[in-house]
Predict the structure.
Amino acid sequence: ADVVVNATSGAASLSALRAAGPAALDGKVVLDVANPLEFSAGFPPTLSVCNDDSLAEQIARELPGSSVVKSLNTVNAGVMVSPPPGATMFVSGDDPAAKAVVVDLLRDLGWASIVDLGSLSGARGQEMYLALWVRTMTALGTPAFTMAIAMPDGTAAVTPAGPASDPTTRD
């Protein structure tokens, strides 16, 4: 499958994708790694959209012929491509086949703990995590970190991507 990565600034994502042309992205998996950070009040940023919508959902509405999947937005670029052992990555999207493509990409990058948050509305939580991420980055003095979800038995948190694990009933 053809994958297009939206790695634009969240504030510019919609206009950049409009400029690319929705028709040019039809039939493609759009991996959205952007965050709707709003810096008008300074640092730390707020989110330009949250709670009942997400940037990923806005992108999906702009690109009805594409399959939008949210992932990799909770880490910096270095961690994206070289995750530490045990690190957890999240994925959400409405198309199980598109999520499977992204999960395969994540595994190729070295992510072993992948949690499928279900439908694209799961992107709301992924994007809202940025408030905690920014505060953690400030406290640690570096953006080179991620999180790991540990299960009580000590194993990594992993859910399969696809319809069987799609918890859309929780939305």
